[in-house]
């Protein structure tokens, strides 16, 4: 029972490159979210999904795309990476009274 | 809209002293409240949560928090700090129906001095 998994753990991109951050869960919960963590800013919500086929924007959605085709997976896409997207990214899965986090992906955009 | 304010981005205490990390929330509906801890270069771990039961909530590692509706506060305390408590602490709020994502404060870094 892995809980919430994220790949890769670390990634370095050049400006303009694209990539997908993967998030998978085996908890069978509908609610999944992506956050980014920056020093002094806490965790800010990028996108979230309340179930397969349903996504919505959070506080800082610009530059990121998501889709949700299955309950288990919720990938985050950067179409054209920018240095401002250098951050640590956390995927989260929500039950009704708790939220579980993945281990994070540390992304650097040069 | 829900929001959380954590007073003090950095708190420093001596080993054995009281730890008090402040969290005030804003919510138009009854909230659930959470404290998470993040040790250096690690992910987030749930310390404790308030989910409309007892207002005094006990968590892991000797931490506790009290929900005070009149003060819209959910401050985190520990009677005696240990060196291993040095970490970043995040307060978060959500609605009780579980229909909204958790909204986080900006965090408080706790340093423990020997």
Q: What does the secondary structure layout of this molecule look like, with pairings?
A:
The complex is a heterodimer of chains A (110) and B (114).
Chain A: E1 4-7, E2 10-13, E3 19-25, E4 31-38, E5 42-51, E6 54-57, E7 64-66, E8 76-78, E9 87-95, E10 98-101, E11 105-109
Parallel strand pairs in A: 2-11
Antiparallel strand pairs in A: 1-3, 3-8, 4-5, 4-9, 5-6, 7-8, 9-10, 9-11
Chain B: E1 3-7, E2 10-14, E3 19-26, E4 31-38, E5 44-50, E6 56-58, E7 64-68, E8 73-78, E9 87-95, E10 103-104, E11 108-113
Q: Mind explaining what this structure looks like?
A:
The complex is a heterodimer of chains A (110) and B (114). With 110 residues, chain A is an all-beta fold. Helices cover 0% and strands 55% of the residues of chain A. Chain A is built from no helices and eleven strands. Chain A has strands spanning 4-7, 10-13, 19-25, 31-38, 42-51, 54-57, 64-66, 76-78, 87-95, 98-101, 105-109. In chain A, strands 2, 4, 5, 6, 9, 10 and 11 form a seven-stranded mixed β-sheet that branches. In chain A, strands 1-3-8-7 form a four-stranded antiparallel β-sheet, with no helix packed on it. The mean pLDDT of chain A is 94. Chain B is 0% helix and 56% strand. Chain B has strands at residues 3-7, 10-14, 19-26, 31-38, 44-50, 56-58, 64-68, 73-78, 87-95, 103-104, 108-113. The radius of gyration of chain B is 13 Å and the shape is globular. The model of chain B has no long low-confidence stretch (mean pLDDT 92). Classes of the chains: A mainly beta (110), B mainly beta (114). Chains A and B meet through β4, β5, β9 and β10 of A and β5, β9 and β10 of B.
């Amino acid at each position: 029972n892995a809980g919430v998994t994220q790949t890769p753990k670390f990634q370095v991109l050049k400006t303009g490159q694209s990539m997908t951050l993967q998030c998978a869960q085996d908890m069978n919960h509908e609610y999944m979210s992506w956050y980014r963590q920056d020093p002094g800013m806490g965790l800010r919500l990028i996108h979230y999904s309340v179930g397969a086929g349903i996504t919505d924007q959070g506080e800082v959605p610009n530059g990121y795309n998501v889709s949700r085709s299955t309950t288990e997976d919720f990938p985050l896409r950067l179409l054209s990476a920018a240095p401002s997207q250098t951050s640590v990214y956390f995927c989260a899965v929500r039950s009704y009274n708790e939220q579980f986090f993945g281990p994070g992906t540390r992304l650097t955009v040069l | 809209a829900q929001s959380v304010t954590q007073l003090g981005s950095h708190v420093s205490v001596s080993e054995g002293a009281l730890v008090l990390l402040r969290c005030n929330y804003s919510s138009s509906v009854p909230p659930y409240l959470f404290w998470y801890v993040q040790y250096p270069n690690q992910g987030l771990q749930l310390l404790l949560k308030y989910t409309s039961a007892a207002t005094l909530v006990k968590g892991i590692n000797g931490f506790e928090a009290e929900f005070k509706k009149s003060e819209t506060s959910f401050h985190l305390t520990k009677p005696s700090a240990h060196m291993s408590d040095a970490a970043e602490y995040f307060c978060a709020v959500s609605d009780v129906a579980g229909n909204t994502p958790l909204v986080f404060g900006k965090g408080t870094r706790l340093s423990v001095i020997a």
